[in-house]
Amino acid sequence: MKFRDLLPLSLILFLLASCAPQKATPAPNLQFQIDQAVAATLIAMPIPTQVPPPTPHPTPTAVSLTGLFCEYQFCIGHPSNVAFYDHLATLDVGAPSAYGNGFIYAYQIPSLVISLIWLQAPGTTDPNFLLDTILDDQSDVTSGSLEVKLIRDMNVIYTAITTSIPEVPFGSAGAWVCGDRVFAWKSYTQQADIAVALFNEAISRFSCGQ
């Protein structure tokens, strides 16, 4: 083939090469915008929902807390419509009841008064001295002789009483030893049978940290 014949062919090949698509190189600022768009897309993609941890459910108490006073490392029953108050704290906020000694009371005017005192007395087996303490010489009169009851592992002494208070002429009182403490309990009521029931309710639910 002569040169003059190759010239048109070379011209055609040159033109085709110049018309072929070229790989574009993005400008630096355009590349930055592309990178930002990709990053934003990745951030916006939803992630799998985490499985929530199991919810702890409270376990039921072994005993009903209704009508149960628990403080100072002991528990005692009482009517559910009254609550105990710290008598020592009302006398002196700086010297409230504590483990070693205390005085709490509950009342419902004008039909009910309950009081409970305790004293730490290691080695004591006879609670009679604290029963004498809780009974008021001016207003309380014991009815009959003391009863001694074995309630669980406690020797409990109990007596019915009458009072000189017209609104609450009847009552009952008891005392017992639990661990290194002596407890004494007393009630004033309008009816004698209620006083007995109150004591039974109190002592049946009594427990102490020993």
Short structural description:
By secondary structure, the protein is an alpha+beta fold. It has helices at residues 3-19, 28-44, 87-91, 128-134, 192-204, and strands at 68-71, 74-77, 85-86, 101-108, 112-120, 140-151, 154-163, 170-178, 181-189, 207-208.
Features:
single chain; 210 residues; alpha+beta; seven-stranded antiparallel sheet; three-stranded antiparallel sheet; 5 helices; elongated
Describe the structure.
- Residues 6-17 have low confidence and may be disordered.
- A hairpin with a 2-residue loop joins strand 1 (68-71) and strand 2.
- The relative contact order is 0.13.
- Helix content is 28%, strand content 33%.
- With 210 residues, the chain is α+β, with helices and mostly antiparallel strands.
- It has a domain at 68-208: Protein Transport Mog1p, Chain A (3-Layer(aba) Sandwich), CATH 3.40.1000.
- It has a 7-stranded antiparallel β-sheet with strand order 3-4-5-9-8-7-6, with helices on both faces. A 3-stranded antiparallel β-sheet has the order 1-2-10.
- The longest helix has 17 residues, at 3-19.
